[in-house]
Amino acid sequence: MMGKLKVYADRMSQPSRAVIIFCRYNGIDFEEIKVDISKRQQLSPQYAEVNPFQKVPAIVHGSLKLSESHAILVYLASAFPGIADHWYPTDLFKRAKINSVLDWHHSNLRYGTVNYAVNTVLGPATGVPLSPKAAAEAEKVLLSSLSKLEDIWLNGDGPFLLGGLKPSIADLSLVCEIMQLEVLDEKDRSRILSPYKKVLQWIEDTKTATNPHFEEAHNILYKAKSKFEQQRSRVAETGTEPSNKIGGHAKM
């Protein structure tokens, strides 16, 4: 007996949300264990025994301890019975293509999204000062990545990555990443995303395909978005600096 799957996660983490949505959608029985990054719980000695890299998400399944969200999603899609083939196809060519998207994601879309959000909004909530210079560099990577999504990865017959008719683990991972931009000022978010019509439609298609689990997993992000909006309104009205006590974090 492998025992019940344990998922260590913080839902303000984009990769954590992807793993949770995948489990919920596919009916995988699991225990969600919150690792609160705003309280630095990922740095505790207890969590280091689960993931020595001290990041989320991580899973424990029987004797297996596994970190890195893409590796986790691959494992879940392969280890649990009844998972539809479109998530991580048995066809080796299709599987290799999905792997190529996942590998590309880390140093492109993820790099740009995380560093832009942290250096424009989320940084102070995690003890990192805002850096306009770092934000400008991240924006270049983010916009380049969105262009490649639009022109290459979404240039197929179906609505999902690589022309898929149904979402794969890559769709879920990348859309959860882009959702972190919800914390931005709405004008800034629109400026970044509105030129990419296929990307915007793909986000909506992925939400629709995985609801209600997608929206449920993102509730914490929407609440953080609302708090940041209120904070900006107060600053505009009073000219006072924000308290930066909102518990937002970008994985980590």
From TrEMBL:
Descriptive protein name? glutathione transferase
Tell me the segments the record calls region Disordered.
232-252
Boundaries of each GST C-terminal domain copy?
A: 91-228
Organism domain of life:
Eukaryota
The reaction(s) this protein catalyses: RX + glutathione = an S-substituted glutathione + a halide anion + H(+)
Q: What is its EC number?
A: 2.5.1.18
Q: Which GO terms describe its biological process?
A: toxin catabolic process
What enzyme class is recorded for this protein? transferase
Domain GST N-terminal: from-to ranges: 3-84
Q: Which family does it belong to?
A: Belongs to the GST superfamily. Theta family.
Q: What's a single GO MF annotation on this record?
A: glutathione transferase activity
Q: List the InterPro entries.
A: Glutathione-S-Trfase_C-like (IPR010987), Glutathione-S-Trfase_C_sf (IPR036282), Glutathione_S-Trfase (IPR040079), Glutathione_S-Trfase_N (IPR004045), GST_C_Theta (IPR040077), GST_N_Theta (IPR040075), GSTT1/2/3 (IPR043377), Thioredoxin-like_sf (IPR036249)
Under PROSITE patterns, the record lists:
GST_CTER (PS50405), GST_NTER (PS50404)
Record key words, sorted: Detoxification, Transferase
